[in-house]
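Good morning,

Both structures are done.
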Amino acid sequence: MSKNFSQVAKALGKRGGVATKSKRDSDYYRRIGKLGLAKRYNKPASTDGGFFEGLTLLAVPVPPMLEKAIGYDGDARFVSFYWMPGGDEAYYDDGQRAGTGNWQGYLAFVQHPTVHPEIAHYQLGSSDSEAHHSLVLDRQERKLYVSSMKYARTFLAHQWPKSEPIHMTSEEWEALQTRIIAEMKQKQQDLDIGEIQRRIEEQYQLVEALQNWLNQFLPN
């Protein structure tokens, strides 16, 4: 393969003219499906009742360990990733839970030559600037989208069922905070040097596996 993914996606969709986005998307996923690296898709998800209307499907390979390599261990179907200058870290957000991710895994993915050309013109955040866009991963279909930060937050929040507001007295709220802080301190105390080293090694292996998986798409 001698072309980048943008060129390949366009070439696959052409029939004597400019390819439609729907044609590029469906042909792209059929192509990588034949390589045994993804499912086959008959139509882009953006046609699904407008549910994906504010998301742009990216023609990039999606590693099976992507979310874990970036530090997300939740169970939401959709989760977003971006970079924040405050703290200079990668972040994840699933609409209910947000936090600091793993910067090595994030950079290994977004800077890989099979991915970077497709996302370079989006503002996913950097050490010096706020993110205007975020990557949105569909963990069920193994597809990756990009969206504005504003739309991504709304989209992610809608994947969760609505719940009734919880009413607490100030005493109950203080007791809850005290319990959570105590549990966090206990978890930190329970981590010994061996466990910390194991987690570091596990993360290193995930990032290495991600890079090796993406390397399958590099030109020979």
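Second structure follows.
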Amino acid sequence: MTEQVPTPPPVSRWTGMGEALARLGLACLATAVGVGGLGAIVAVATGRDVAGGMAGAYYLVGTLLFLIGMFPTGGFSVIRGTITRRKPTGSRQEPMFLIGLVLIAIGVIVDVTRPF
């Protein structure tokens, strides 16, 4: 009797990409709802246009997330507060800057269309 050996799933550079994109989409959606809601609350509380307040919040938070996400990681230790001799290694490789870009794009859409 011969045993059937299961074949492992194919491994490529795209393995797991669907799950990562789903998590990124969920993070973008949750951040957009939170920032938009906060912008709308501030706009109503100050007597301003809701769409303008939401767009401003999207611009502000999106720009901050983009800048933080693109800040180089090497050379400075936040925990130790020291500067090492390492050269900066580039951006943080985190999705934070992508979420920032998505928020800026949503801000442009809300600002142009004025749906609220």
